[in-house]
Amino acid sequence: MLAETVRADFDRIAAAEPPDHVEAPARRLVETLGMRTRVLEIGCGTGALARMMARRGARVTAIDLAPGMIDLARGRTPGHLAIDYRVGDLRRLSPRGFDVAIAVNTLHHLPLAEGLARMASAVAPGGRVLVVDLFEARGIAELPYNAISWLLRTRETIAHELAAAWAAHRDDALPSLAEIRRVAERALPGAMVRRHLGWRYSLRWNKPHV
After folding, report:
1. 91 C-beta neighbours (distance < 10 Å), count
2. Which residues of 28-55 are buried (b: 16+ CB within 10 A; e: fewer)?
3. Residue 93 in contact with residue 65, Cβ under 8 Å?
4. Which of 116, 106, 105 is CA-nearest to residue 198?
5. Burial level of 78, CB count in 10 A (0-12/13-18/19+)?
6. Which domains does the chain have, with CATH numbers?
7. What is the pLDDT of residue 130?
8. What is the mean pLDDT of residues 45-55?
9. What's the per-residue H, E or C state across the chain?
10. Tens digits of per-residue pLDDT, 91-137?
11. Which band of pLDDT confidence, cut at 50, 70 and 90, is reported for residue 160?
């Protein structure tokens, strides 16, 4: 999906003031962070995850393609939290020296191999790449998984304008978990990829020290 389209979609979503939400797989990743960790968050949205990490003592640089999302995140963030919000496109940036690079529901908007490679470049030796994102469960064998994920979906009532903004946003075709694992193994050898309910996967990778 073109960056301009993603930016416009999420500016509209931001204008509808979506509620803060951090998915369970992302919360579990955050629980592994240590104090004073230097974190780069890619696609920070409303800033909910950035605030959660900062409250644990992390120093967070949070970027998002949509200026509206950055404005919303700044408005919801207390001044004492160590978060630097910036409008930015990962494909045009070359961040370096972070302990952790994390992206939640962001990498499906760009080529996965490129996104993972850029995240790997952003972390120092010994650093970590953490991802939670979407995949498509295909085929007859996935029917039980799809049925359970459908039943467990959050059934929240949201405002009309927000619902319309999300409906107008159309993601590109999502990869299968097998495709994600193949790309991850080439880009980040040794990466651990796990499947979660709700059509989510998580990825963890430790950058070698040498």
Report:
1. 12
2. ebbeebeeebbbbbbbbbbbbbbbbbbe
3. no
4. 105
5. exposed
6. 3-204 (3.40.50.150)
7. 97
8. 96
9. CCHHHHHHHHHHHHHCCCCCCCCHHHHHHHCCCCCCCEEEEECCCCCHHHHHHHHCCCEEEEEECCHHHHHHHHHCCCCCCCEEEEECCHHHCCCCCEEEEEEECCHHHCCHHHHHHHHHHHEEEEEEEEEEEECCCCCHHHHHHHHHHHHCCCCCCCCHHHHHHHHHCCCCCCCCHHHHHHHHHHHCCCCEEEEECCCEEEEEEECCCC
10. 999 999 999 999 999 999 999 999 999 999 999 999 999 999 999 98
11. very low
pLDDT score for 35: 79
Between CA 67 and CA 148 the distance in angstroms is 36
pTM: 0.90
More confident residue, 1 or 64: 64
Structure tokens at 112: 């996965």
What are 135's two structure tokens?
């995949």
Q: Which amino acid is at 159?
A: A
Lookup result for tokens 């200026």? 67
Contacts of 204 by beta carbon, 8 Å cutoff, 6+ apart: 29, 128, 129, 130, 191, 192
Residue type, 178: A
